[in-house]
Amino acid sequence: MKGETHRVVIIGGGFGGLYAARSLSSAPVHVTMVDRRNFHLFQPLLYQVATGGLSPANIAAPLRRILVRQRNTEVVMADVADFDPANKKVILHDGELEYDSLVVAAGAETGYFGQNQWAKIAPGLKSIEDATEIRRKVLSAFEQAERETDPKIREELLTFVIVGGGPTGVELAGAIAELSHNTMKYDFRNINPADARIILVDAGERVLAPFPPELSKNAHDELVKLGVEVHNHHRVGAVKEDSVIVKHEEEETTIRAKTIIWAAGVQASPLASKLAAATGAETDRGGRIITEPDCTVPGHPEIFAIGDMACYKHQGEHPLPGVAPVAMQQGQYAAKTIVNRLRDKPVEPFKYNDPGSLATIGRSKAVAVLGTWKFTGFIAWVLWLVVHLMKLIQFESRLLVLMQWSWAYSTFNRSARLITGEDYRQEELDDILNS
Amino acid sequence: MKGETHRVVIIGGGFGGLYAARSLSSAPVHVTMVDRRNFHLFQPLLYQVATGGLSPANIAAPLRRILVRQRNTEVVMADVADFDPANKKVILHDGELEYDSLVVAAGAETGYFGQNQWAKIAPGLKSIEDATEIRRKVLSAFEQAERETDPKIREELLTFVIVGGGPTGVELAGAIAELSHNTMKYDFRNINPADARIILVDAGERVLAPFPPELSKNAHDELVKLGVEVHNHHRVGAVKEDSVIVKHEEEETTIRAKTIIWAAGVQASPLASKLAAATGAETDRGGRIITEPDCTVPGHPEIFAIGDMACYKHQGEHPLPGVAPVAMQQGQYAAKTIVNRLRDKPVEPFKYNDPGSLATIGRSKAVAVLGTWKFTGFIAWVLWLVVHLMKLIQFESRLLVLMQWSWAYSTFNRSARLITGEDYRQEELDDILNS
């Protein structure tokens, strides 16, 4: 029975993989969703976990739960080791899976521009464990500062450097500023958390570079109001224990800080280079697979590479950005293409329909672009809230997250301010160090 | 200024320490609350975290937040290394604290009756990290079973042994039974989670031994209804990788199981033996400090030892049990005694006022004793819910936990089913192994 059904293997339960799987729910195929984690993670809200506003379970949902009613689909929790396209097999660390169609949507991880040793000092923000590690670092810095008697070290403990002025960097900087300047205002006896310096280091001309310039300006101003020091045109020369060396034109400055967070770059999952090696596909500088107009790997119409690990040159133009809507639409497209081919229907090239962009700045401000519409301030923030809540996969999460936010919003409280341990992070770190 | 104020150092932000600190809020003293974690943990609900029903932040609240309005109190996040009662100092790993009165409320950890090597295999349930470790183990066992082709190994993966028939063991067994037999019923394709065996091994004559016999009977029956195999009069002879050897009278049986959870015993925090060594106090078999009728350490009226790390022979009778109400009342008593002494008022011996006991069995059943009243079934469960929600320190937690439960209750869903990493646990484990 199974042998006769068209077998689709999907690697990765992120936005791309999940949307592919859901779009296949009523197709005459057997779907196997493979992920090394047992949950789908709503990455856009990770910065809220990193700053104690939400719990991991608020932004993660078990993959089995999401796909429980989809009877043609099974979920396999496993590590993918390699690909065998000649025999149409995915090699797992402890087994293998045969496929007729393969959708690889393994996502991206933090990229350090070849300076992987910086990963040990400056964590990125891609996983639950990254988020709890950042939370641990930020909260521990305040705890240590409270007990530190040397004013120089105390100052270093209360300096937080965020590298990268994209949405993640802006959202983190805003949230850390609010955490220290508002939420924890009265929590300490020997330090004043409002003295904390939050420094956003950005190599570009303006923060939120993909947004229209007036929105970047607005975001910049809001960050400054929250007490964030924004340094544009500053490149990171080196990340060391307790300091960052930044370069502005020819001038080098050392910023002494115990907490450094990396939001400056991503690189494709290591599975992208494995898939490229197995298929002869080319990759771009970020390690992303350069795909055909139908999102497949050149020479392998049965293998789709989608989302953050794929480089899709949209209608011959610039590659599409690594954002959730691209992954979702490519996932849906891959599913549709698989079904159309089974039915011998013609297949159009993938076409991206840009729904716009959103980024928050602190507690109640945001910037948004929707088509030709631009929004700032509270209205943009409400928009951001609605869009994100709508996308949270499970009803319960939406309701609970809304409640938690309402509470946090009206009281400035962030109840998930727990310092807990590190874990899977070590593994990820090793991955990055050995990449 | 500070030098003139009476300095109270409280070690431990559990029920005992926190109630002592809060009872001193308007006293003419300076309070220093020392804990190595930055949060108060509501331990009675840990089993909900271990089974994916609640998130860690639902049952933990930052100590600074709880004590933020108490201006005579500071919170210090630090590890206590030793005591110097002659000089009235607490030695920290990185400093020291002087006191005039000291309240030691460091609690208890899992005890393995001298077989500490079992800790590596069978985790206890005392910390957030224990809970997420158990959650990881239980959920991973199902994930592995789904992919296992050897029926013998699959059976081992689907066998869960809980050692200890006290409230923690009963609550865990009930919750794991519901998780596998209800919540995850339709989640898998190759296994039937309802086939999972949940085995409760109890050395005593009946589960929930401190409760009246008819309530033990009721709890036993409800567990069996949920599909738990209850083995009374069974002692654990050995815990090995993948198996437990149990003894019933003279007969030995081996239960093959990949997941073994230890809820059979506690022992006092290692700080109890350090305090005993420093003061010459005696300890009982569980390592608890045997205190005077006023909860102080013999010969040191300025040092209180309270809660789970203290052995208090109530009015010459049996020692008080290691439960939250004892710790709370002793904390309040210690605070009152410190204030009375400052005012040269007489001090009465501590007197415990037993408010009763509660334990849940699964989703909507419980047993409760309140004075001479006994409750079972749904009424007891509502009682349990109300009592626990009332005690959750922060308003937000109460509301969110209630919502989360309502949702989980009506849908059988447990949304916090995340497999995340281990961490602080290694440290705790080393502590236990070296103790």
Provide a brief overview of the structure:
Chain A is an alpha/beta fold. Chain A has helices at 15-23, 46-50, 63-66, 128-147, 151-157, 167-183, 213-225, 270-279, 324-342, 377-391, 395-411, 424-434; strands spanning 6-11, 29-35, 39-41, 60-62, 73-77, 80-84, 89-92, 95-98, 101-104, 108-110, 159-163, 197-201, 228-231, 234-240, 243-248, 251-256, 259-262, 266-268, 289-290, 296-297, 300-305, 310-311, 357-361, 365-370, 373-376.
Tell how many strands the DSSP assignment of chain A holds.
25
Largest sheet of chain A: 6 strands, mixed
Q: CATH topology of the domain at 116-264 and 420-434 in chain A, anyone?
A: FAD/NAD(P)-binding domain
- Unreliably modeled segments of chain A: 422-429
Using the CA coordinates, give the radius of gyration of chain A: 22 Å
* Span of the ends, CA to CA of chain A: 41 Å
The two chains with the largest interface, and their residue counts, are:
A-B, 54 and 54 residues
- What quaternary form is this? homodimer
- For the record, the CATH architecture of the domain at 116-264 and 420-434 in chain A stands as 3-Layer(bba) Sandwich
> Looking at the structure, what is the overall shape of chain A?
globular
Strand content of chain A: 25-35%
The helix tally of chain A amounts to 12
